[in-house]
Write a structure and sequence with these properties.
The chain has 736 residues and is mainly beta. The protein has 8 domains: 32-150, Carboxypeptidase-like, regulatory domain (Immunoglobulin-like, Sandwich), CATH 2.60.40.1120; 155-228, Immunoglobulin-like; 232-316, Immunoglobulins (Immunoglobulin-like), CATH 2.60.40; 318-394, Carboxypeptidase-like, regulatory domain (Immunoglobulin-like, Sandwich); 398-473, Immunoglobulin-like, CATH 2.60.40; 478-561, Immunoglobulin-like (Sandwich), CATH 2.60.40; 565-654, Carboxypeptidase-like, regulatory domain (Immunoglobulin-like); 657-732, Immunoglobulins (Immunoglobulin-like), CATH 2.60.40.10. Helix content is 7%, strand content 51%. Strands 1, 2, 3, 4, 5, 6, 7 and 8 form an 8-stranded mixed sheet that branches.
Length: 736
């Protein structure tokens, strides 16, 4: 459990670490960050000159007058919004801490009257969005640059357990909030590709947080339906070993149903509350900055009636205290100590304290911007206090980056890694090609370098800390290009991957959206590969013996793909009526969540239309029989159906049942429970929580065998699933 105060220290340390290594340039602005600083600075000067004197002591967030001391503590956040080609974007909406501004004609923006602290910055314009950036705002915070990218549209439908839409549900995605209408629908534009974490809540219902696969097509519309069960609150207090209530304690409640953890903080009276929790058994514990959990508490909750009076206890945690000095014995301030759950920074006297630790063995590392020390191992018993002393020595790695012709390379990324748990460092080269990793734990490191934005690393070379003249050589970029045609016409959406094996199904394809059907791999690693091309409208295609040479372009010309076979069918209910919005999937293992990644592994799916009809194109002839299954979050699941090549299928949805179970003993680190159909094909998995509990929310009626991934099971547990009923089973693991 990573507590809030540890997270804050980690974020702050990471940001200071990055800022300390940011190369400083002089002269004309040459990078996006430089242009952002110039644009924001010019705009800030104009705003300051135009501001009436009477507004100088006004909080811009609230409009309330403030005193001179408070006014002096307010900060200004500036930045620049650019497009994919680094061109400034006017009229983009930038959000910080619930406040919003629109970018100027030069793409710049500014927020005045912000207090020092941490902020999340978001930018969007139409269907375009920028990745969230975490900014630590202070006197020396540099302008931020937000780059917009085209994102998909996510349509979310929220239903209750009876299938009725829930109006007014809150959907949080991409740092933005949406409310469902009377139809239970909410639409979010410009969401991140590959996947988004979606948080859903509604009064009186159990909320959910799930990762939604948003695919790799920025022009796509993804629809997802969520069913929220009823929910009620659980509340209580946290007390210490003497029975005194503990303020600012962190409370965790892990659900046996979803495996997710809900959390809360205690108030000044040690009270806590988590609203709208669904039916489940919850494993609860608490901790504080100086205390650890005195033990888990298990509470069964029916999700309908509020539970109050839960008492969670904490006890004294272990503690590591220490000092960091240099070779002369002088204290070293702002040194970072890390290892396991330990994260601390030395004060001006070189002193640090890490409290609230569990009994464990900790390997501690220390580093400052220029120095480091040998790792130390500390073994802590319950409640024990230990003291350590680090003596740091100069331990950075510095040098310069050049290309194959010996010319300096700016903005190259240098990565250094050693066997130490904290033995890693990163740096970027400046306009002269110089770099400096800063302080690292002393030792020998494997160091690689790549051009700015490149995925191709140089071969690793071993360098010892203290080296100041390392010479790193980046490879010249290699390119592979071609044009993909279907029936003689360009394919505008597809994916490609360079792989050593044409049959490799694990490769992650690069997404292409181009009306001319052309792709350009600008950053290919030298070697000989197979080029695999996939798309939703055609069969998987592979080209062998593609040779990639540094500094050269390999043009494959026109690449013809074929449609392959098309599998058609319908999804119906028990009365034969078509069911819209059902998902039909080939029952194959898929390696990856994005659509093109699934196509790479041979998995395909489709969503039924208003008549319940579906089409799955692009099947490779000769692949043999295909197994299909249809699912719907409310209407049920079909039986797994085997379809011959070129055939069609009618999949009948049937009401499902649920299966809950417990694995004994639960002390092992368990992964997933597996339910296999006995009477026909079908394999389903469910997460196992720390208490050993698992739950299958939807299973087709029938007979099942139960198993646990990676474990030997005593006997052979069975379960019978009936429509609308919940079966229960115990799985006993065989002795180790």
């Amino acid at each position: 459990m990573v507590t809030r105060w540890i997270v804050v220290v980690l974020v702050g340390v990471a940001l200071l670490f990055v800022i300390a290594r940011e190369p400083r340039g002089t002269g004309e602005p040459s990078s996006r960050a430089d242009r952002a600083a110039v644009a924001a600075s010019e705009r800030g000067a104009a705003h300051a000159a135009a501001r009436p004197p009477e507004l100088a002591a006004v909080d811009e967030a609230t409009g309330a007058p403030i005193g001179d001391a408070a006014a002096a503590s307010l900060e200004r956040l500036e930045g620049l919004v650019v497009d994919a080609d680094d061109r400034p974007v006017a009229g983009a909406r930038v959000s910080v801490g619930g406040r919003h501004v629109m970018t100027e004609g030069d793409g710049s923006f500014a927020f005045d009257g912000l207090t020092s602290g941490e902020y999340t910055v978001i930018a969007e314009r139409g269907g375009w969005f920028a990745e969230e950036q975490e900014v630590r705002l202070g006197e020396d915070t540099e302008p931020v640059t937000l780059q917009l990218a085209l994102g998909a549209t996510l349509v979310v439908r929220i239903l209750d357990e009876a299938g009725a839409p829930i109006a007014g549900a809150n959907i949080h995605v991409s740092g933005r909030d949406y409310k469902t209408g009377a139809d239970g629908l909410a639409r979010a534009r410009g969401v991140d590709l590959e996947g988004e974490m979606v948080a859903i809540s509604a009064p009186g219902h159990a909320g959910t947080r799930e990762r939604v696969d948003t695919g790799d097509d920025p022009a796509a519309t993804i629809e997802r339906t969520f069913v929220l069960p009823g929910g009620a609150a659980i509340s209580g207090v946290v007390v210490d070993e003497k029975g005194a209530r503990v303020a600012d304690a962190y409370v965790e409640l892990e659900s046996s149903v979803s495996g997710r953890t809900e959390s809360a903080w205690t108030d000044e009276q040690g009270a806590w509350k988590v609203a709208d929790l669904g039916r489940a058994t919850y494993v609860m514990k608490a901790s504080s900055p100086a205390s650890i959990s005195a033990g888990d508490q298990v509470v069964a909750h029916d999700g309908a009636r509020a539970r109050d009076g839960i008492v969670l206890r904490v006890g004294p945690g272990a503690e590591i205290e220490g000092d960091v000095v240099d070779a002369s014995g002088a204290p070293v301030a702002d040194a970072r100590i890390s290892g396991g759950s330990v994260s601390a920074t030395t004060d001006e006297a070189g002193h640090f304290v890490a409290r609230g630790l569990v009994a464990d063995t900790y390997t501690l590392s220390v580093a400052s911007p220029t120095h480091g020390a040998v790792d130390q191992v500390v073994m802590l018993a319950k409640g024990q206090k230990a003291r350590v002393r680090f003596v740091v020595v100069p331990s950075n790695i510095a040098g310069f980056v050049v290309d194959a012709r010996g010319q300096p390379v700016e903005d190259a990324t240098i990565a250094a890694r050693s066997e130490s748990p904290a033995g890693f460092g990163f740096a970027r080269s400046d306009e002269r090609g110089r770099f400096d990793t800063g302080g690292l734990p002393p030792g020998r490191y494997q160091v690689t370098v790549s051009r700015g934005g490149s995925r191709v690393d140089s071969k690793a070379i071993e360098i010892a800390t203290g080296t100041r003249d390392a010479r790193l050589v980046v490879l010249d970029a290699a390119r592979v290009t071609g044009r993909v045609l279907l029936d003689g016409k360009p394919v505008s959406y597809f994916g490609y991957a360079l792989t050593e094996d044409a049959d490799n199904v694990y490769s992650r394809p690069t997404t292409v959206r181009d009306e001319a059907g052309r792709f350009v791999e600008k950053d290919a690693e030298p070697g000989t590969y197979a080029l695999v091309i996939v798309g939703p409208a055609f069969a998987r295609t592979a080209i062998a013996n593609v040779r990639v040479v540094p500094g050269q372009t390999t043009d494959l010309g026109d690449i013809a793909v074929t449609r392959g076979q098309v599998l058609r069918g319908r999804v119906v209910d028990g009365s034969g009526a078509g069911v819209a919005g059902a998902t039909v999937a080939l029952s194959r293992d898929a390696y990856g969540n994005a659509p093109l990644a699934r196509l790479m592994s041979g998995a395909r799916s489709a969503t039924t239309d208003a008549r319940g009809a579906f089409e799955i194109p692009g099947l490779v002839p000769g692949d043999g029989e295909t197994t299909l299954e249809a699912t719907h979050p409310v209407r049920g699941i079909s039986a797994v159906t085997i379809v011959p090549p070129g055939g069609s299928a009618v999949l009948v949805l049937a009401p499902t049942g649920a299966l809950e179970g417990q694995v004994q003993p639960p002390a092992r680190e368990l992964y997933r429970a597996v339910a296999r159909r006995i009477d026909q094909p079908g394999r389903y998995t469910a997460e196992i929580d720390r208490s050993g509990a698992f739950r299958f929310a939807q299973l087709p009626p029938g007979e099942y065998e139960l198993d646990v991934v990676g474990e030997l099971v005593a006997g052979q547990p069975h379960a019978t699933i009936a429509p609308g009923a919940t079966a229960r089973v115990m799985i006993v693991l065989a002795p180790e």
